[in-house]
Design goal:
The complex is a heterodimer of chains A (334) and B (302).
Chain A: H1 22-62, E1 73-75, E2 78-80, H2 90-97, H3 101-134, H4 141-148, H5 150-153, H6 156-167, H7 172-179, H8 191-219, H9 223-231, H10 236-247, H11 249-264, H12 268-274, H13 284-294, H14 300-333
Antiparallel strand pairs in A: 1-2
Helix pairs in contact in A: 1-14, 2-3, 3-8, 3-11, 6-12, 8-11, 8-12, 11-14, 13-14
Chain B: H1 32-59, H2 71-74, H3 81-89, H4 92-123, H5 129-140, H6 144-157, H7 164-188, H8 192-200, H9 205-216, H10 218-234, H11 237-242, H12 251-260, H13 266-298
Helix pairs in contact in B: 1-13, 3-13, 4-7, 4-10, 5-7, 7-10, 7-13, 8-9, 10-13, 12-13
Classes of the chains: A mainly alpha (334), B mainly alpha (302).
Region (Disordered) (chain A): 1-21
GO biological process, one term (chain A): transmembrane transport
Main location (chain A): membrane
């Protein structure tokens, strides 16, 4: 049998009594929970086969010197056995503090952090601004919303090519800048402008999601709170600061977390905008892909090691972020 | 007590009972300057949102591959030749088939497998619950770089490289936990009382789920399905790496093949891009009514 939980307290109903013996506990726990376990079984199975096994295998590969020349492969009818060998944590050591580690890892690391921070900040602030505008009584706001959702509605791999046409030498953006007698940067060649263009395109792609979710959050804030605040003489800024922002907290914390994860892992924008031509504009994800599949010989071990490092960074960030959120929660509760 | 006429049900009127002689501003109403500024900003934002796509459509009408450099010339010689060429001479329909097979496969597997789990984690607490939720969360943030190398190795051993099944399996690794998470959020919004009523009437937990909750959760299922579809449809990295045969390309790969070949056929590429974008965005707009509820419900913290 399964257990109903009380939503208010999160406690199990009817959870009481002294601890019985271990065997009995096992049996009782089976009787009590088998339904829950049966229901999550399919996902557990899928995750085990499709995620945990490859993850473990990938981690094993990072401890070897596997590349496309020494892994098992079939050429025509010849099957070649794998010949890579175990080298321990050398890959990680090499990535983090080997020779030229700065050029290979740390420069990309810093750029990835800048990229994530800049993109999420832009997504969030622009998204919130537009959501606030759309939340007013305004003629034609549905129409505006429908148009502004467009960058999200069209698949990224399509729109990025649109941007590529616009940013190319002699494309519309540079032509426009030249008509205005402004300098026309080499968007797709110069490192700084590549990064600038990448952030710009990703911002364009990511704002609608933030806007729509924050709009949903805004609409769920109780109107009477604003009335009460107004009665107490709060001006517009104070209403925003003390009613809107706290009301958006749960939505904001989720979309910011999602935004950070998605931006950090954003592959399509940079890969499709520059291909493999821009080594300095690659964030860690695309760089890891480049190591594993964009060059010859393919360096599988290093690429997988980058992957594990990336995952570690994300996990640390997420736990810190959630702990930070929960700390605030406790403070609110007290 | 007399009341003024209620303008909108959402915002209760606050004006004093007898209509004041001076026109007061109602809640949420702006002055003329404010309204104009809001309209101005929104129009600008809409233009920015619209322009790259409109530009793509415009370029797709130019017959020559270098027309994107001289957009002015397109105006005089607009033609749909690119479209007919793409539809008849390229692998467009093969790509369409691959994209649909892969995306629909992922969607079906993802939603079906994730539904019971979403319900279980929404309604039941069991030993290992927190760990399980943590795994679900962590799996969603896997960078593609973590799985792509081992997946490539495993799939080549199983001879699944360059097959739809291989790609579907890879996509399921993200779609399944994501759907479970999203559905949990949706199930959380369905009142517990419904379950309790079902249990009182003698349904088993599975019966409750199947007969009561699942029909109520249709919007949530739609959103989960939609998201799996869109992610699978737009995925670039795995598809680029795992699909080798250009008849099996999904759109995300096929579109790249216009430039990575010996010359860049930008006009054809633009036409293909437009042809892809139209049905997908139409679909998107059909479902988007459910998006906000689905997202914010899915967004509650676990």
């Amino acid at each position: 049998m399964t257990v109903a939980i009380d939503r208010a307290t999160g406690k199990r109903l009817g959870d009481r009594g002294p601890r019985p013996g271990p065997l009995q506990r096992l049996r009782r726990s089976y009787q009590k929970y088998w339904y829950a376990y049966a229901m999550i079984a399919p996902v557990v199975l899928v995750l085990g086969v499709l995620v945990l096994y490859p993850l473990a295998y990938g981690f094993y590969l990072t401890l070897t010197d596997a590349n496309s020349l020494n892994t098992a492969r079939t050429i025509g009818v010849n099957e070649i056995e794998a010949t890579y060998k175990f080298i321990g944590f050398d890959n990680y050591a090499d990535i983090l503090w080997g020779e030229t580690a700065y050029d290979r890892f740390w420069s990309h690391f810093i750029w990835t952090i800048v990229w994530t921070a800049a993109c999420v900040a832009l997504h969030y602030s622009i998204g919130l601004g537009l959501a606030l505008l759309l939340n007013q009584k305004l003629r034609g706001r549905t129409f505006y919303r429908l148009i502004m959702v467009l960058p999200w509605a069209v698949p990224t791999f399509v729109t990025v090519f649109g941007w590529r046409f616009m940013l190319a030498d002699g494309g519309i953006i540079n032509s426009a800048l030249e008509t205005l007698h402004l300098p026309a940067p080499q968007w797709l060649e110069d490192t700084f402008w590549q990064r600038f263009a990448a952030i710009m395109v990703n911002t364009w792609c990511g704002v609608p999601f933030m806007m729509v979710s924050l709009l949903g959050g805004l609409q769920s804030i109780d109107r009477t709170l604003y009335e009460a605040a107004e009665m107490d003489g709060a001006n517009a800024w104070q209403r925003f600061r003390y009613v809107t922002l706290p009301g958006l907290r749960s939505v904001s914390s989720t979309v910011v977390l999602l935004g950070v994860i998605w931006t950090f892992n954003q592959f399509a924008v940079i890969f499709l905008l520059f291909g493999t031509t821009a080594p300095d504009a690659q964030i860690l994800v695309t760089w890891a892909y480049y190591l594993g599949f964009g060059q010859q010989p393919r360096d599988f071990a290093q690429s997988a090691a980058y992957g594990i490092l990336l995952l570690a960074i994300l996990i640390v960030f997420t736990s810190v972020y959630r702990r930070w959120l929960n700390r605030n929660d406790q403070q609110l509760a007290i | 007590m007399s009341t003024t006429t209620v303008q909108k049900s959402a915002t209760a009127d606050q004006a004093p009972a007898p209509a004041p002689p001076r026109r007061t501003r109602r809640r949420g109403e702006q002055g003329l300057v404010g309204t104009l500024a809001a309209h101005g900003t929104l129009t600008l934002a809409s233009l920015i949102a619209l322009f790259p796509i409109a530009w793509l459509v415009y370029l797709s009408l130019g017959p020559d591959k270098d027309d994107y450099l001289h957009p002015g010339r397109i105006w005089g010689k607009m033609t749909f030749d690119n479209y007919s060429f793409v539809l008849t001479e390229t692998n467009f329909f093969d790509w369409l088939k691959s994209s649909l097979v892969v995306s629909l496969g992922t969607t079906a597997i993802g939603v079906i497998i994730a539904a019971t789990t979403g319900y279980a984690v929404s309604r039941m607490r069991f030993p290992g619950y927190k760990k399980f939720m943590w795994v679900l969360l962590v799996t969603q943030m896997f960078p593609i770089a973590v799985l792509i190398v081992p997946m490539y190795q495993i799939l080549s051993e199983l001879q699944l490289i360059d097959t739809y099944l291989g790609l579907i399996l890879v996509y399921c690794s993200t779609a399944v936990p994501y759907c479970a998470w999203l559905l949990k959020g949706y199930f959380d919004t369905i009142p517990f009382e419904i379950d309790e009523a079902g249990r009182v009437d003698g349904l088993s937990p599975f019966g409750t789920f199947l007969r009561l909750i699942l029909p109520l959760a249709r919007p949530g299922l739609a959103v989960a399905a939609f998201y799996s579809f869109i992610t699978a449809f737009g995925e670039v990295a795995f598809a680029t790496t795992f699909l080798l045969d250009d008849e099996k390309y999904t759109f995300a790969v096929g579109l790249q093949s216009f430039v990575s070949e010996h010359d860049a056929q930008r006009n054809l590429m633009a036409a293909t891009a437009v042809l892809i974008a139209i049905p997908v965005s139409a679909f998107f707009y059909l479902v988007q009514k459910n998006l906000v509820t689905g997202l914010t419900a899915g967004g509650t913290k676990g």
